[in-house]
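Run folding on both entries below.
>entry_1
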Amino acid sequence: MRTVYIGTSSFAVTVLEHLARSAHSPALVVTRPDAPRGRGRKLSPPPVAAAARELGLEVEQPHSVNSADARARIAAARPGAVCVCAFGALLREPLLSAHSMLNVHPSLLPRWRGAAPIERAMEAGDARTGVSIMRPTAELDAGPVCAQAVEPIDPGDDFGALSARLAGLGGELLVEALDRRPPFVEQTPEGATFAAKISNEERLLHGDLDAAALERRVRALTPHVGARVALPGGELLGVQRARVAPAGHQVPPPGKLAASDGHLLLGAQDGALELLQVKPAGGHVMDASAYLRGRGAALAEAA
């Protein structure tokens, strides 16, 4: 089947690679315009644009996918289906109704509709998540679903590990849906939850949560967004890996960071979170023990 693929992120790259290896390789890939990225703010293509060119696929990067020009370019590719994954901008009418559309969404809809379904599933302590293939509609992620596959959330998963598995699963499920064309079934409102985009405020670890919830947040934000903790003086310390602190340590007050017997602890509502790997501002990821050799005295005084 002739397809057009619409996507942007690294997650969408994995799905595109599965699609390109199938009998439904896209005649056209549509993605976002180049944008400044990294510390140098150098103008760079989105991950899907770079991957599509490496695969020898034709690429379009319209300012708006909903514009008349973009819609005409998609129609000229004569797709039997338009496949969408992690595009990062809303598709609107008349584009939504112009083609048969399949959207790859990394959750078990109707749970976790929205921009951050993987992060929110991890934060909530869900034992499982998965991928849904659905038809996009004007209401965000509320369209009918034609296929789903389940993926367990392992206790040691961070976003990077879980996202990689879901991307591979999403690519396989999309190809299977194109092969089999299963019927769409409307979502029910029961069990619907919304996965809001991660805010800058949520990246900062406070003492208003219990230690297990803080640990899940660290995993949910690693490595793509990154959790942080405020140091005495206002500097922010990145947190890459953490665990619920075992009993026996002197626990700092909720929200306070302190060194205790060679361990770096953040006070929580029910104990403490032990920081295991951290990233100082402008520095590299390091074990907390190495960080403490330079900052331990100051943190002990602040405890």
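>entry_2
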Amino acid sequence: MSWVQIVHEVPGRTRLLAKALRKDTARCERLAETLAAVPGVYRVEARPYTGSLLVQHARSTTAQTLVETAARTLEAPVVARGATPPTPETVPALSEVARKLARALQDIDRDVRRASEGSVDLGTLITLGLLGAGAVQVARTEQLPLPPWFNLAWWAFRTFITLEVEEIAAKDPEERQIADEIEKVLE
């Protein structure tokens, strides 16, 4: 499902985000041209990779006018600032097995936190268990095996993105929402 949202707004400067624009350079440029034609707009900077548009405008031009223009152009609903965008209707509901498994893991996690009075959770126990299993394997074989290339590639990517999230947020505070989305994916 497509939508348009005001991500950030200060007088004379508004950032819009539209999922429909992600990685669609032509559509992004068309919307930028449409917004540039709005009275009072000085400059529109499109970022097709993220689906965001930075609009610099006169103080008399409201962010609401810009988001409504974008919504009409993209034929997409406006999502209130800070609201969670709607989920696509095509995403199937979790299967019964997935729901039962998730519920069981939540129950185990709750029991572990209660038993440890909040000092340990299931994620920590699993991490320590895997670390211990690895240590036992190294002690038993007296060798430190090299992980498969795809594990190394994943951890290199994850480390890079994790470090870059902070860099993105430090350079451009308006990109904080995108940085937060990356952090959610990596959690």
